[in-house]
Amino acid sequence: MKHRHLLGITAFGVLALAGCATSPSSGYGYGSSTPAYPSQARCADCGIVTRIDAIASGRSAPSATGAILGGIVGAVAGHEISDKTGGSKGNQNVAAVAGAAAGAMAGNAIQNRATSDTYNIHVRLDDGRSVVINQRDLGGIRENTYVRVVNGKVVLR
Question: What's the pTM value of the predicted model, to 2 decimals?
Answer without folding.
Answer: 0.46
